[in-house]
Design a protein that fits this description.
154 residues, 6 helices, rod-shaped, transmembrane helix, T2SS_GspF_dom, transmembrane, membrane, GspF/PilC
Length: 154
């Protein structure tokens, strides 16, 4: 602009800062002599676009948090609750409820690898459960184990 170039030409030299449609509108305003009105219109348009963007981001924050909480809840159920409930059904001869079987099936690959926090074990998870059954003592009439195995301490 110092060398006498138009504002639209200076804006066109920086495409990362000024979109092509904005440069074209400025060029039209320069050609018709209504540059002040065009600048006011573009300013209002940019402010509205930024307001809509901020509104959309704030509107999507709550649903995003809900989805994260739901994923965390399912992970806790599969990783903590199902392994704790599974031994209760082993000695009874009954099959666990469908929800527990399904959650156990979903958590089996993760649990077998020892990826879940608090479940790190050098052995496969089934091996740890077998050792726990042999080492632990259950309460009267239940499969709840009292003594801990070294896999739970790792």
């Amino acid at each position: 602009m110092v060398g006498g170039a138009s504002l639209s030409r200076a804006m066109a030299a920086h495409p990362q800062a000024f979109p092509q449609d904005m440069v074209d509108i400025m060029r039209a305003g320069e050609a018709t002599g209504t540059l002040v009105d065009v600048l006011a219109s573009l300013t209002g348009s940019i402010e509205r676009r930024d307001a809509v963007r901020r509104h959309l981001v704030s509107a999507m924050t709550y649903p995003g948090l809900l989805v994260l909480m739901a994923i965390g809840t399912v992970a806790m159920i599969v990783g903590v609750l199902v392994p704790a409930l599974a031994p209760l059904f082993e000695g009874t001869g009954q099959q666990p409820p469908f929800a527990i079987r399904t959650a156990a099936a979903l958590g089996a690959p993760v649990d077998a690898e020892g990826v879940l926090p608090g479940r790190r074990c050098p052995h496969l998870r089934d091996d740890c459960l077998q050792r726990r059954r042999h080492l632990g003592e259950g309460r009267q009439g239940s499969a709840v184990l009292v003594r801990q195995h070294e896999c739970d301490q790792a």
